[in-house]
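A further point concerns the way the authors explain their paired sequence and structure data. Each protein is reduced to its one-letter sequence and a matching series of backbone shape codes. An entry of this sort, consisting of the sequence and the corresponding backbone structure tokens, reads as follows:
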Amino acid sequence: MPELPDVVVYLEALDRFVVGRELRKIRVVGISLLKSFDPPVSAAEGRTVVGTRRLGKRLVLEMDGPDDLFLVIHLMVSGRLRWRDQTGAKPPGKIGLAAFDFDHGTLVLTEASKRKRASLWLVGGTDALIEQHDRGGVEPLEADETAFREALTTRNRTLKRALCDPSTFSGIGNAYSDEILFHAGLSPVQRTGNLDDDEIARLFEATRTTLVDWTDRHRQTVGDGFPDKVTAFHEEMAVHGKFGQSCPVCGVPVQRIVYADNEVNYCAGCQTGGKVLADRSLSRLLKDDWPRSIEDLED
């Protein structure tokens, strides 16, 4: 699922490619994609994109006009945006969900999954945009340590769930939370209510440095182009997607917790004092405080 670093780089590319351009036509071909009907999505046609913003993992395109119209896109797990330098470019085969035609090219929305979860809304008014799509989480790169601590410790829950909950922190998901917890040296199942001041400070710093580092990495990869290889798995990551591979710090094989459709990767040597977290022994804990799937975090 595209998370804060990925969404930021997507939006920066949209700033370059479509802001200041007229959206001539919206072609929705995936019947499950469109989630709103009033105003109709056609109301955005013939308008100019005047800005972009991020709400959690949602991408927002602001349209010109007196009625404050916003196109909102949530890519979920497998949704991706692609730019084609051809006006009227056809969305690809089974994975194409929509196309947004501009005078100089087409923005195509795809989803390479049988389970179609990507969503598109047209929202009228800033108040409605915030009410319907702002999950209320603290912006992790804008909050100071005090605000970060307050958000983190409002409820006593596992660190993994706290970081991924969009009502707690905005834009963090499964991939980057694994990396954040690794760099903070903290167990994914440690409870927020058991953290001392030093651990909170480490987590705060690891959150900021991890998100900034990966945003910068993606910017360098994309350059002046459009992101075309957005993925949750990167060779340079320390633990996410690295089950069985050696930890880059201590050399211990990366471990994982699997629960339903969700998987958490961690280093026992760096994060849990050498203890391997067995799924079965944690089942009671996970039942109470673990999403059954990555998608559950957005439901």
